Structure formats: structure tokens, C-alpha cells
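user: Please review this fold.
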Amino acid sequence: VQLQAYGGGLVQAGGSLRLSCSPSGLTLDDHAIGWFRQAPGKEREFVATIAWNGGSTYYGDSVKGRFTISREYGKSTVYLQMNSLKPEDTAVYYCAAARSSYGGSSSTGYQYWGQGTQVTVSS
């Protein structure tokens, strides 16, 4: 199983980025997908998750109203649209898959993790 996260980069505060996560080796329909992030010197933080059927989403308080998680089954891809970015959003962003219909906000609920993608927001 591999999860490839991509789409990170450098953006100015107030800007937008869209991250993508494309799992391979697993059936997207059978897994919930979550996004987490980790800034230097900080613990990994929950960002967002989407249920296996795309029917339920849940966001961390720090990104609620600014980030949107979605999934495109035809392309087996999960997206994280990030708007109104702030310098404190700077981190390495990881996508993860849970062998359940809903992964939750704890990293322990996810069995598969991908390589992260760096997001840097300048002030």
C-alpha cells in the first residue's frame, strides 16, 4: 500500500493550495482518508478526514471554514483544498488511510501513511 501526497509548495498568506492524495494497493471505497500535518518541533496535528463513502467529513478546529476535504472516486484521489492560508499552516502534510468507514481525528485510527508534502506559507 502506498499513499502519495503532492501539491505542496510556497504560498503567501491569504493564498490557496490544493493537496492531492492518490492511494495505490488499496480500494479507496473501503477506506476512510485523513490529512494530518506536522510542523517543526510540534506534534502531529489532525487536519481533516472523510468517510469511505464521502458522506461525512470532519475538520480540526484550526482549519474549519478554510479547508475542504473531498474525494473523486473516478480518479481514486482525495483532495484537501486549503484557502485563506496562514503562516501557522506551515507544516509537512500527510495523508493516511484507515481500514474502516470513518477514521476519526486520532492518528492511531489510520493504518497506512504516505510521504508528506511540504506546505510553506509566508507572511
